């Protein structure tokens, strides 16, 4: 069942649906209904802490209802898509549940995205509007929203948290109506929200997650990680990412009755005082932030007063030597994982031997997760050998939103998702990530599509050929290097000239190259393709961070 345009969503086959329902993986409640159950269970308990706001479960439930009615009064109909581009704030949670409550579909855009990505996602989703902050980290999101409104037909509603300018203020949305008519209740099989892919092949794609698969994802992850109502989860990474949202993240914490604490800034000078003020017990980080926190922990006088017991790390492989520092420097246990917004999530377990926690990315969280490791010919590799990870299961999608041609390449005929990650599986079932086959650069936990960046650079009037590669970096894991071939007689551009050109095209800052170099020609492989391995070998030693 779906209120989305015909063909936009690829459902699970009937046989899989029957199995996942019969075996108890999928429930019958939408995410909005689940919030009502959570609020009824512990109405006075603290649900959300952010900035100067503290919401109990009952208050969160009431504000989500008010937001839902405000959207409905503003013309948002069931099935309509609405971009949500909010930083880590209480309104992120209330807007998310408000849209779910009126059966609309939130499209979770990251605060770092700019005109290029936002306009593309608005067109792809056929969004009717957006919810944005007034300003965040010096950037005026109201102006961006107006640019998208002028460019995309049907994109009419702009709601602003903070100073609205000429748009609709969030406070008006909350108080827009006193109606008590029943809100629409979506079927649990419907698409609940659309996540943004890491953009590993060209422009970002949209990942449809249904109410029932995402609810299962959240609760299964919470159980594996040992979350309870006594836990307080600190959201450091952008809340619109799958990792801090649902792995177990915001949704998993609320599902068990815990407290969600949000911070807009993940740096130690902002977070460490917060850990002293709030009884935060769990948080999730990408490896570059783990290093930043560990390096700063020596000067953290309040560590003894922190309640932090557990650190979840994902987004990229954690170096074993850095894993060893988590307990010593931060005073908490470590869980490593590999996950993807498309579905599969694997974690080490709290009772795993230390050597598996420090050097693997864990085991799948669900008994129904199916994993294959295959070679280039599509056949399974020998046990313990490295190959591409293929997966399917009760919370792994069967197709991207409105992307039939890409889906034909990304999925096998029998429904396995080709992840592009290179892994090997230990006899214990633990996965070890060895790299990837997709042309994507993991810069500090953010995926940068080489193909997307190359397309933009080829539009520069002086560039006739380009290759974008990732270079190793001790802090970010990888940095982005653009290797340009210029037209004859063209002056060699400075790096800041190239980044300024890309910035004018509306690219997110994390996608801009850290380094720009020029060559007369690109090296080629035996089949005539750019030899990116040779470029990495040439420039790796001289890689510098922006």
Strand order of the largest sheet: 2-1-13-12-14-15-16-17-18
Structural class: alpha/beta
Task: Give the beta-strand count.
Answer: 27
Largest sheet: 9 strands, mixed
Q: How many discrete domains?
A: 3
Beginning-to-end CA distance, first to last residue? 47 Å
The CATH architecture of the largest domain? 3-Layer(aba) Sandwich
Strand % is: 15-25%
Q: Summarize the amount of helix as a percent range.
A: 25-40%
Tell me the CATH superfamily of the largest domain: ANL, N-terminal domain
Radius of gyration: 23 Å
Essential attributes:
546 residues; alpha/beta; GMP Synthetase, Chain A, domain 3; 3 domains; 9-stranded mixed beta sheet; 7-stranded mixed beta sheet; 18 helices; 32% helix; AMP-binding protein; ATP-dep_AMP-bd_enzyme
Textual characterization of the structure:
This protein is 32% helix and 24% strand. Strands 2-1-13-12-14-15-16-17-18 form a nine-stranded mixed β-sheet. The protein has a seven-stranded mixed β-sheet with strand order 9-8-5-3-4-10-11, with helices on both faces. Helix 2 packs across helix 4 (90-101) and helix 5 (115-125) crosses helix 6 (141-151).
């Amino acid at each position: 069942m779906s209120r989305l345009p015909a063909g936009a969503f690829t459902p699970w086959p009937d046989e899989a649906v029957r199995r996942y329902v019969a075996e108890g993986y999928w429930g019958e409640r939408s995410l909005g209904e689940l919030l009502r159950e959570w609020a009824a269970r512990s109405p006075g308990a603290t649900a959300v802490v952010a900035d100067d706001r503290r919401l109990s479960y009952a208050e969160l439930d009431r504000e989500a209802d008010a937001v839902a009615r405000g959207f409905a009064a503003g013309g948002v109909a069931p099935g309509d898509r609405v971009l949500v581009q909010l930083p880590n704030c209480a309104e992120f949670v209330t807007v998310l549940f408000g849209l779910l409550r009126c059966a609309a579909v939130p499209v979770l855009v990251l605060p770092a995205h700019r005109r290029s990505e936002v306009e593309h996602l608005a067109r792809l989703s056929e969004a009717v509007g957006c919810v944005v902050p007034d300003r965040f980290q010096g950037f005026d999101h109201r102006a961006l929203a107006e640019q998208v409104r002028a460019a995309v037909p049907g994109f009419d509603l702009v709601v602003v948290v903070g100073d609205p300018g000429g748009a609709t203020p969030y406070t008006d949305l909350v108080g827009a109506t006193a109606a008590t008519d029943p809100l629409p209740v979506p079927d649990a099989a419907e698409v609940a929200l659309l996540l943004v892919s890491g953009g590993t092949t060209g422009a970002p794609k949209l990942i449809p997650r249904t109410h029932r698969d995402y609810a299962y994802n959240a609760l299964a992850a919470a159980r594996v990680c040992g979350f309870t109502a006594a836990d307080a989860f600190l959201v450091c990474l952008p809340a619109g990412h799958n990792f801090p949202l649902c792995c177990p993240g915001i949704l998993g914490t609320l599902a068990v009755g815990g407290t969600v604490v949000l911070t807009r800034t993940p740096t130690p000078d902002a977070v460490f005082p917060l850990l002293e003020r709030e009884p935060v017990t769990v948080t999730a980080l990408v490896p570059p932030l783990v290093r930043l926190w560990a390096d700063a922990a020596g000067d953290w006088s309040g560590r003894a007063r922190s309640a932090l017991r557990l650190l979840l790390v994902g987004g990229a492989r954690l170096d074993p030597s850095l894993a060893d520092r988590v307990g010593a420097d931060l005073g908490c246990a470590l869980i490593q994982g590999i996950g993807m917004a498309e579905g599969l999530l694997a974690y080490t377990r709290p009772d795993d031997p230390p050597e598996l926690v420090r050097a693997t990315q864990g085991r799948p969280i669900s008994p129904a997760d199916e994993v294959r490791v295959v070679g280039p010919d599509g056949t399974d590799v020998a046990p313990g050998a490295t190959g591409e990870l293929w997966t399917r299961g009760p919370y792994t999608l069967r197709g991207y939103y409105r992307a039939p041609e890409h889906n034909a390449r990304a999925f096998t005929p029998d429904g396995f998702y080709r992840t592009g990650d290179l892994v090997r599986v230990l006899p214990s079932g633990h996965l070890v990530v060895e790299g990837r086959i997709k042309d994507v650069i993991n810069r500090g936990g953010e995926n940068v599509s080489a193909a997307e960046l190359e397309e933009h650079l080829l539009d520069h009037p002086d560039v006739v050929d380009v290759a974008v590669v990732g270079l190793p970096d001790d802090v970010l894991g990888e940095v982005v290097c653009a290797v340009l071939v210029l037209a004859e007689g063209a002056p060699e551009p400075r790096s800041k000239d190239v980044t300024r050109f890309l910035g004018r095209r509306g690219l997110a800052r994390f996608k801009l190259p850290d380094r720009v170099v020029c060559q007369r020609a690109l090296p080629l492989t035996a089949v005539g393709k750019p030899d990116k391995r040779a470029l990495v070998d040439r420039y790796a030693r001289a890689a510098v961070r922006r």
